[in-house]
């Protein structure tokens, strides 16, 4: 059986182990995924808010800038070369159908950070009005998602590892 780790809101996990990381029920929240297909190191941050956390905030990684910096640093400490990192973004929907741009702002903030860091945004599945889930299978090199009640779809795969 696969080792599945659920990454809750405001949390992030980086692993070099053959595990599956997943973020469920992404409404306006965004899953930011980094993957190194050479070393099979992957990370997923479940981000809730744009910008940087106020000093008093205890769960800083629910903010995009803090989570971004933390996941990049964790990937580096797990023997990941920045130039080999592939970035993915899933989520950021407006599920409440109100004039709410939180998800859109988180996605914009992550993209800005990706550009500033010189990383490569390989694929994204963002916006709209339907909730999503995001999954990274570190061993096989597969990034997948669901949208609404749909079946899981592959966003990206390291083709040589797909069975």
The class by helix and strand makeup works out as alpha+beta
What's the N-to-C terminus distance? 16 Å
CATH topology tier name: 60s Ribosomal Protein L30, Chain: A
Low-pLDDT runs of 5+ residues are none
Number of helices: 2
The 3D shape can be described as globular
Major β-sheet annotation: 5 strands, mixed
- The CATH architecture can be given as 2-Layer Sandwich
Secondary-structure element series: EEEEEHEHEEEE
Mean pLDDT: 92
Give the beta-strand count. 10
The CATH class turns out to be Alpha Beta
**How would you write the strand order of the largest sheet?**
1-3-8-9-10
Helicity level, as a percent range?
A: 10-25%
What's the Cα radius of gyration? 15 Å
What is the total number of structural domains?
1
User: Which percent range describes the beta-strand content?
Assistant: 35-45%
Question: How does this structure look, described?
Answer:
The chain has 2 helices and 10 strands. It is α+β, with helices and mostly antiparallel strands. It has a single domain, classed as 60s Ribosomal Protein L30, Chain: A. Strand 9 (142-147) and strand 10 (153-157) form a beta hairpin. The chain starts with a strand and ends in a 6-residue tail after the last strand. 43% of the residues are buried.
Task: Describe the SSE topology.
Blueprint: E1 4-6, E2 12-15, E3 20-26, E4 30-36, E5 41-47, H1 64-77, E6 85-91, H2 102-117, E7 120-126, E8 132-137, E9 142-147, E10 153-157
Parallel strand pairs: 1-3, 6-7
Antiparallel strand pairs: 2-5, 3-8, 4-5, 4-6, 8-9, 9-10
Task: Please describe the structure with a list of short key phrases separated by commas or semicolons.
163 residues; alpha+beta; 60s Ribosomal Protein L30, Chain: A; 5-stranded mixed beta sheet; 10 strands; globular
